[in-house]
Amino acid sequence: MAAPEPETRAAAKTRAKDKSPWNWLLFVPIVVPLIPVFYNSESPRIFGFPRFYWLQLAYILLGVAATTLVYQLTKKRGDR
User: Fold this and answer.
1) Cα distances (Å, whole numbers) of residue 10 to 13, 14, 18, 22, 69
2) What is the pLDDT of residue 72?
3) Is residue 52 one of the residues assigned to a domain?
């Protein structure tokens, strides 16, 4: 079994230069669920579920949306 080749300098340099300010947007889905005032209540209820449970699903959607947005805004395009 062959050992994996070490990473080239060009690839390491490219990764190190990826300091887009859009990456800060990834902190939103991490910080928002940590604020207890958002889910510290039972009302309003949606389909009989208290706020805590349906907000957990909303936080998942927030994380997916933020990750997708950051990916789309920071991906390298061949036409540049």
Assistant:
1) 5, 6, 13, 23, 26
2) 92
3) yes
DSSP type of residue 48: T
* 72 and 21 Cβ atoms separated by less than 8 Å: no
User: pLDDT tens digit string along 54-76?
Assistant: 899 999 999 999 999 999 998 87
Domains contained in the chain, number: 1
Is there a domain that residue 7 lies in? Answer: no
User: Is 12 a member of any domain?
Assistant: no
Q: From CA 55, how far away is CA 74, in angstroms rounded?
A: 28
Containing structural domain, residue 55: 21-74
Cα–Cα distance measured from residue 4 to residue 35, given in angstroms and rounded to the nearest whole number: 44
